[in-house]
Amino acid sequence: AHLICQGVLDEVVIFTAASNHNGWVDFLRASLEEFAGVPRGTISRIIAGEDCRMRDSATGRAFKDLRLVSQDSSQVLIIDDKPDFVQHGEVVAVGEYRQHVPIDHLVQAMPCSPERRAFALEALRQDQAQFHPCTTDFSRDCELFYVMQRVSDFFNVSHPPASVLTLPPRLVERH
């Protein structure tokens, strides 16, 4: 939001190969804005799997054509865990984040019928059976700081705003 107000960014877009058919990405956008403490609408658009026309014939993965964000894709930066499937524009490659965070207690607290709760728990169970939880400890991961530096460099921002995270002293020597 800070970089939009300064005119450094035109917009922030979620570009995902995931489907938004049931509103999952809409929910994710609202959650990210809430968590980040930015005004609603800071993430101005969603480009989801339904918008991706080209797919890899071998894997079925969607190609993300950054010209969907802007015709001048030289001004588009995406942060993605599957950089080989990004076309046009600039990509900052990051590792896939698969940390398992148990949320059964949140499902139990959902204000819904027992049937809907059971449905949600079963969906979680099936998801975990298909995509096994990762046991990697990400507590010392510094990838976010690398991404912040790449974003600052791409948009010629000399330094991040004071409200941006700084590298914890205990991690400085590892970075």
Automatic annotation (TrEMBL):
UniProt domain FCP1 homology: residue ranges: 11-97
One Pfam family cited in the UniProt record for this chain: NIF
Highest taxon of the lineage: Eukaryota
Listed name of the protein: FCP1 homology domain-containing protein
Biological classification of the source: Eukaryota, Sar, Stramenopiles, Ochrophyta, Dictyochophyceae
